[in-house]
Design a protein that fits this description.
- The structure holds two protein chains of two kinds.
- In chain A, 27% of the residues lie in helices and 29% in strands.
- Chain A has two helices and three strands.
- The longest helix of chain A has 12 residues.
- Chain A is elongated and about 45 Å long.
- Chain B is an alpha/beta fold.
- Helices cover 23% and strands 25% of the residues of chain B.
- Chain B is globular and about 40 Å long.
- The chains are: A alpha+beta, B alpha/beta.
Chain lengths: 78, 231
């Protein structure tokens, strides 16, 4: 089973990376951009998808500061 | 007494920590893959970039075999001090509350800062005077202390914010100017500044020695009355 795990800063925690990107876009002429947040995408193959939640809680994310979403994307290979 | 300084792949302040600790006692290095703490009286998790700090700072080091032994040692009341990356590791290992996030500036910051000793009654600060200022360097990219509001209230009301950046010296954006915190039991402390780099007036300040002296005094007292270890 292939899975994608999206890890992002928890709402309400200052995200300076997002802020830096938000400030950089208008400098390139892209206007009307707000509320930018930068997270991390983890892709993996796993035999037992029921383990994903525990993987996120214990290693892939730090639940104190990050939210995560697990998306199963189907069979093996890419 | 004997300090043990953990060496992970990627640690870089282990030798300075060992040299600093050896000014007040004996100090040995402990290998990350070792499950034995070799009978040390206090453990220091030093600064650096353990396991490359991949994924998140401190996230991988937490699973090193030696960390099981450190967690057992902490559960038994043994003193554990985490400095910089060591603080990050102890937070990831849930031995300390909170987390260290990227500096607000997103930049690496390296400078001498002034700290205020908020709690001088801990095993790590007992050689200090309450309200005293210590001049100690910081050097990090991810040193912004964060804890949820309810946890911050508990830390503050229980005197577990041990060190604060003095006004104008909070270079990373830490909440409540927090530079160092301690666990509920009072035997595990973490701080972002580097006391091991401030042990000789020749390099600017010897204030960092106060922490090592505190641990030495605590261990000496614990040796005289074994029932009080970690109290």
């Amino acid at each position: 089973m292939r899975a994608r795990i999206l890890v992002r800063p928890k709402a309400g925690i200052l995200d300076p990376q997002g802020k830096a990107v938000e400030r950089a876009l208008p400098a390139l002429g892209f206007v009307g951009v707000s509320d930018v947040h930068v997270g991390r995408l983890i892709e993996l193959e796993v035999d037992d998808a029921s383990q994903l939640e525990a993987m996120c809680e214990r290693l892939l994310a730090n639940p104190l500061i990050e939210d995560y979403e697990i998306e199963l994307t189907g069979g093996r290979g890419r | 007494m004997r300090f043990g300084v953990v060496r992970f792949p990627g640690s870089c302040d282990d030798v300075d920590a060992q040299l600093a600790a050896s000014r007040v006692g004996d100090a040995v290095l402990l290998w990350h893959a070792d499950r034995d703490l070799h009978g040390v009286d206090a453990v220091i998790i030093p600064g650096g970039f353990s396991y490359g700090d991949y994924l998140r700072v401190g996230a991988i080091a937490r699973f090193a075999p030696v960390m099981d032994a450190v967690a057992d040692f902490a559960r038994e009341g043994g003193p554990v001090l985490g400095i910089c990356n060591g603080f990050q590791v102890l937070c990831e290992a849930r031995l300390l509350p909170g987390a260290l996030l990227s500096n607000i500036s997103l930049r690496f910051v390296c400078r001498q800062v002034e700290l205020e000793v908020v709690n001088a009654q801990t095993s790590f600060t007992r050689a200090c005077v309450p309200g005293e200022r210590l001049s100690i360097p910081i050097k990090h990219t991810a040193g912004r202390y964060y804890a949820p509001p309810e946890q911050l209230e508990a830390l503050e009301s229980e005197g577990r914010i041990v060190l604060r950046y003095a006004p104008g010296h909070n270079a990373n954006g830490s909440v409540l100017d927090i530079a160092g915190v301690i666990n509920e039991r009072g035997n595990v402390m973490g701080l972002m500044p580097h006391p091991e780099h401030a042990v000789d007036a020749l390099t600017g300040s010897a204030d960092g020695l106060r922490l090592f002296e505190s641990i030495r005094d605590h261990c000496a007292e614990a040796a005289r009355s074994p029932g009080l270890v970690g109290a």
